[in-house]
């Protein structure tokens, strides 16, 4: 049974930090591209940070560069998103997704890439208060 389960969301004050986890089961996440996405209230889905299966480093959208960091822990079959210096604009439901394709992280973080991803989690809510 293939699953992606996100955890680590919550309520935090502006300037605070959270670490989100995306735990995979039923497949090896190390062989997949993984992306983190968010959907803010009343807005569409947005790619935040993505890494291809053979990428050495992750892609980040401009608004989170220098604040967010994606990492893989292949031994735990888990991908993390560390979010520092959070801003109220980061408030959203964060989801992770996985894809067996060989595209770059940048590809998966764009709409043409992420809508075709193989597996999706249900998301974890992040609320940043001002």
Overview of this protein structure:
The chain is mainly beta and 130 residues long. The chain is built from two helices and eleven strands; from the N terminus they run βββββββββααββ. The protein has helices at residues 105-108, 111-114, and strands spanning 3-7, 10-13, 18-25, 33-39, 45-51, 59-60, 68-73, 78-83, 92-99, 119-120, 124-129. Strands 2, 4, 5, 6, 9, 10 and 11 form a seven-stranded mixed beta sheet that branches. The chain has a four-stranded antiparallel beta sheet with strand order 1-3-8-7, with no helix packed on it. Strand 5 (45-51) and strand 6 (59-60) form a beta hairpin. It is globular. The protein starts with a strand and ends with a strand. The model has no long low-confidence stretch (mean pLDDT 96).
Low-confidence parts: none
**DSSP helix count?**
2
Which structural class best describes the helix and strand composition? mainly beta
SSE sequence, one letter per element: EEEEEEEEEHHEE
The profile of the biggest β sheet is:
7 strands, mixed
Helix content: under 10%
Q: So what's the overall shape?
A: globular
pLDDT averaged over residues? 96
The Cα radius of gyration reads: 13 Å
Strand residue content: over 45%
- Note the gap between the termini: 40 Å
| Count of distinct strands | 11
